[in-house]
Design goal:
By secondary structure, the protein is mainly α. Helices cover 65% and strands 0% of the residues. It has 3 domains: 90 residues, Up-down Bundle (Four Helix Bundle (Hemerythrin (Met), subunit A)); 52 residues; 83 residues, Arc Repressor Mutant, subunit A (Orthogonal Bundle). The protein is built from 12 helices and no strands.
């Protein structure tokens, strides 16, 4: 932090020496002079709860990247150019490490992540609320050009990771958050009904197949009940008929099966 600030011409000279001659002494002087810039930018991200030392280290990586890409012939100030790289590197680090749950990395999602708190604090009455109301969600979505759903999901994400075993009531320690999760898997009753229905349909199909003559049964077995169904032409050669005749027999057999199974179902409904 005690390094002297660089004058414009000296700064550009250092950048040219590093670019053209890979003069490490020039690079070190340039980096040391703008280390304070890294610290200043890193301090803006300390409220995300990550170690300040890690933020500064990531910012230094951005500073080195900037020194490699900087074009002194454009005569821009190095600090202006480097600020973008330092900030981008720190933001990437925050997104990777702020939570064990990864968030999106698109430009809009990054903008939402890093601007949500600021916009929330600007909205009257929202800072004191645990969650944004519907009007606030739509206002922020319009401001950042994202969907209201994205805003809702990001706000939930920014409440931080919570253990499923955390108590619902901190005072009594009773209940856990996992107790509030909905179980969308089939209930034992649904599973039993599905198994019984499957067996019943199998029985109906077996009885319906008994109504077919041998040739129709063979066609259904080869065409409908086989993992590798035969073509009409190949089955016609096997049966000694044309493929059109096989098609007709298949249609007739399917109608018989449909009639038989429907009859069984109607009887069940009338019971």
């Amino acid at each position: 932090m005690d390094e002297p600030l660089l004058e414009r011409n000296h700064e550009l000279d250092l950048a040219r020496r590093w670019r053209d001659s890979r003069d490490e002494k020039a690079l070190h002087e340039l980096i040391r002079a703008y280390a304070r810039l890294v610290v200043a930018i890193a301090a803006k991200f300390k409220h995300y709860g990550l170690p300040m030392g890690d933020l500064i280290q990531e910012g230094n990586i951005g500073l080195l990247e900037a020194s490699t890409r900087f074009q002194p012939d454009l005569e821009n100030r190095f600090s202006t150019y480097a600020s973008w790289w330092v900030k981008a590197q720190i933001q990437e680090y925050v997104l990777r490490n702020w939570s064990i749950v990864r968030t999106g990395t698109t430009a809009r999602q990054k903008s939402l992540f890093f601007n949500l708190r600021r916009l929330r604090s600007k909205l009257e009455g929202q800072a004191a609320r645990p969650f944004l109301d519907n009007d606030a969600i739509h206002t922020i979505a319009k401001e950042l050009d994202v969907s209201p759903k994205d805003v809702s999901e990001m706000e939930s994400f920014m409440h931080g990771d919570r253990s499923l075993n955390a108590p619902l009531n901190k005072e009594t320690g009773e209940g856990e958050w996992q107790d509030m999760l909905a179980d969308h898997s089939p209930t034992p009753e649904d599973t039993l009904i599905r198994v019984k229905d499957g067996r019943l349909r199998s029985e109906w199909l077996k009885e319906a197949l008994g109504t077919l003559d041998p040739r129709e049964l063979k066609i259904i077995q080869k065409r409908q009940l086989s993992d590798s169904a035969l073509t009409l032409e190949s089955l016609g050669k096997e049966l000694g008929v044309s493929k059109e005749r096989v098609r007709q027999l298949e249609v007739r057999a399917m109608e018989k099966l449909k009639t038989a199974v429907t009859s069984k179902a109607d009887k069940v409904l009338l019971m």
